[in-house]
Specification:
- The protein is an all-alpha fold.
- It has a domain at about 1-30.
- About 80% of the residues lie in helices and about 0% in strands.
- The protein has three helices and no strands.
- The protein has helices spanning about 1-20, 25-40, 45-60.
Length: about 60
């Protein structure tokens, strides 16, 4: 559960930065948030989740 919470925090930080720089309007952020909620309720949610988990495992296995 750590990875999804980290991703949410990262996306929230990016959204705040974009809103403060006037690159992202509040209405655009709300639309993106609603899209995320609707995607979570579809049949694509397990596929998206497994794709994110696979990507996170791949990134965590990389050694510099």
């Amino acid at each position: 559960m750590v990875i999804p919470v980290s991703a949410v925090v990262l996306l929230l930080i990016l959204a705040v930065i974009f809103i403060r720089n006037c690159s992202l309007k509040i209405s655009h952020a709300l639309v993106c948030m609603l899209l995320g909620f609707f995607l979570a309720g579809t049949s694509m949610a397990p596929t998206i989740h497994s794709g994110l988990m696979t990507t996170a495992d791949l990134v965590s296995s990389l050694r510099p």
